[in-house]
Hints:
CATH class of the largest domain in chain A: Alpha Beta
Strand content of chain A: 15-25%
Number of strands of chain A: 25
Low-confidence stretches of chain A: none
CATH architecture of the largest domain in chain A: 3-Layer(aba) Sandwich
Oligomer: homodimer
Distance between the termini of chain A: 52 Å
Structural class of chain A: alpha/beta
Mean pLDDT of chain A: 97
Amino acid sequence: MDGRNIIGKMKTGSEVGVLNVFGPGLQRILEGSFHIAGDAEIDKALELAEDAFRIYKDMPGIRRAEFLHAIADGILALDDNLIQRAMQESGLPEGRIRGERGRTINQLRLFAEVAKEGSWVDARIDRADPGRKPIPKPDVRSMLRPIGPVVVYTASNFPLAFSTAGGDTAAAFAAGCPVIVKAHESHLGTNSLVAIAIQKAVEKTGMPDGIFSSLNGTGIGLGQKLAQHEKVKAIAFTGSHKAGKAIFDTAAKRKNPIPVFAEMGSINPVLLLEGALQKRGATMAAQYANSVTLGVGQFCTNPGLLIAKTGPGLDTFLQELGKLIQEKKPQVMLNQGICDAYARGTTQLLAQTGVELLAQSGQEAQDFEGRPGVAMINASDFIANPVLKKELFGPFTLVVRCQDDAEMEAVIRSLDGQLTGTVMGEAEEIIRYRAFIDLLQDRVGRIIFNGVPTGVEVCAAMHHGGPYPATTDVRFTSVGTASIKRFGRPLAYQDYLPELLPDELKDENPLNIWRYLDGVLGKT
Amino acid sequence: MDGRNIIGKMKTGSEVGVLNVFGPGLQRILEGSFHIAGDAEIDKALELAEDAFRIYKDMPGIRRAEFLHAIADGILALDDNLIQRAMQESGLPEGRIRGERGRTINQLRLFAEVAKEGSWVDARIDRADPGRKPIPKPDVRSMLRPIGPVVVYTASNFPLAFSTAGGDTAAAFAAGCPVIVKAHESHLGTNSLVAIAIQKAVEKTGMPDGIFSSLNGTGIGLGQKLAQHEKVKAIAFTGSHKAGKAIFDTAAKRKNPIPVFAEMGSINPVLLLEGALQKRGATMAAQYANSVTLGVGQFCTNPGLLIAKTGPGLDTFLQELGKLIQEKKPQVMLNQGICDAYARGTTQLLAQTGVELLAQSGQEAQDFEGRPGVAMINASDFIANPVLKKELFGPFTLVVRCQDDAEMEAVIRSLDGQLTGTVMGEAEEIIRYRAFIDLLQDRVGRIIFNGVPTGVEVCAAMHHGGPYPATTDVRFTSVGTASIKRFGRPLAYQDYLPELLPDELKDENPLNIWRYLDGVLGKT
């Protein structure tokens, strides 16, 4: 296991210190010592990235696509080495890791197609009118240009799909930006394997030195240094509120503040309407027992809050949900920090005024395991208590019982920004409750009818984001093809020399992309 | 002159205090006492805005368009009352104010068309595939939805086009957002006239109470309170670096940080290449003498920095520029603060190491006037001095003389983020200097060949923005139709009830807008 930092085409190991990774399932330190990046290595990575940017920003989409496909090929070639290491480091089962690898490959190939097709740049051409009175109209053209070197903080809960070659990296490369990865301390070995695959893809496809670096270090050390580094032009992060907010605050205080796309989790409220509870309460209980415990509850879209009116429908649902949660087994969590935080958080939650434990897994949690659970509270106690509005990362959900519609509305109004909001209801009652759903809409980035929030489809229409504190930037998604827009910034070219215009803005539209010509969308 | 605050459909005047406006041209206090908004009025305006948002966000584009056209009609109906007051408050000549009114009207009508046409929402539909393995694919649709109540800080230098019913307000209304205007202290009367016209348009077109409010107060008082107010969801600002940065910092420190679109000015560097200087130095001098002094230099796109290599071409240019600047007359500036800052700033600039005055207007400035001037410096002194990188708001430009290409490159590399960068050059030398132009591109939002940066065309392709410190958000423009995107945020609808979907996302595409269907752009 190669524990060096990847600095462009080099591998380096400074003498600052090393990190090791503890495997939560095997309960031992795993092979490999990972060198913490020193200041000189950080500076070198950013210098190279700045140089690489000068070349890569003008590389055509087709070259960027080759690079992305080569990364995907390289990851596939790692085969079982990668699967095993990711399993050991994350404690996640093989099926999940294989699935996540599939998603990672698909994302890389999807962004390759986006880069190749090229219309994402929002090209606009307004032609000159030299005869216009009182002053001539200039020729103005604009498009999204890559923003510059991007730092990607990899996520603990997706060692592949939201990590080294995950969605953020794929989107940044597709957009024309170099990437510097800050590897997550929980899966430094998985990171090393993938980072070396990217390094090889750089070589294979003739990409500029410095288009990619991968650095090891702690959040407080390396993480903060990267957020402060003047050559960094944007940041993508998926993780805890505490870490995301620290990065956001640091970036806002820079001499030159930069965009921070931090996805910081959410409690993902679910409205359970009475008609649906009565008609299919047991089915819904099964859906939600599975969604709450999927991946040991370690998803940012985990349904942490179920909101319903008291009544026989809810009683049946709760009985069934309690029974199913009891049957669920504790499972190994991603790392000790997350496991401890889950245990502490559960204890804290259960100690809050009015919180009543409905059910827990029938088995006690062993070391590094998270024990599924479900608790209840009434609406007024919930509304009054900010502790209950915070994400409890793990296989737990809280049911808020409302006496009437007014209480249900008040619960919705008390919610902070969320990644998702879900409504389980019959068609007629969904229409009847549309005012409530409207309130929910204002607080979420994605609204789901009769489904579960876990499982984020990677597609053109997906929005994985939401109002603060779900993310630090309500205007951008971190999943799906639209996430490429995070790494572009508009540039206007006025009365430009035709031969110096980017292909996207040339008269003859050589890339055959969609663009606005004098305000009209088309391919001419 | 009605000095009350506009709170939705009401007019109120609390007892907090009043402000008066001093007319810089007439040199006296103008008619009207303007009530400073108290905390209760601020809260009321935001409460109403929140209520209005619930209704307005779902109003079809065609209704929003009616509202925008009604505002335009109302402003035209104010006729000479408005023109005279704006002239008195700004010191700007009649032709300029009439032109600015025309631009304001055009912007309102342009955004009305954008709202009516509807494609700006970036609608995306990915259809379900219930048979997909291993898990069914859900139906996911997304579009930009209005972000919520927007505060618009009006600009001192455009009492109409970047103020009460200016581009920010028009874009926010078109997007579906209520607007709360923080009126600029320099033109409270102009603001009152336009605000009342908007209030009448609200009534006439049946818009919800609270869709618009206009408040009087100081930047430190009202300005900061609005930036902190929890019901405010986005901020648009045009003005000084100091004020913009204060708003940005306040918004970043909120419990729920919000987007701030602050356009904070720029020195707008111009590269004068030797071939062009030799061939048409005198013509270029005339162009730039006019651009530097246009509107008494009170444009954020004023060319404050000319960069050229020493040589006979530059000598001729400077001789001619000096002569023309000498012939320009001092003119009344927008207000005392701006005039004092210009006088202080000029003195400070001329006191810097290596700065040499080339020419000044042959006339001394009278009270409230700004005296045109041009100074010179060598490259190394310029590069070393951060004072010279800051905008001097007024009719002044600084010429940086470079000994060679290396110095010219170093000057470009030393520049902060800018709204614009301009290159004056012959075609062959533009191509020869493309590496320098590439460096310039990275530092600007708009790049211009053989023109002047002043005069910002309002069109689809315009980008009026740029890297920090030109703006606080490099990803958005504040001029042109794309500026509407500042006030939208994506929302995804998963497996939604068809009858509850917004028209933009209904299967039958009733609005006939452009959208992505399973990743393919079209009108089906």
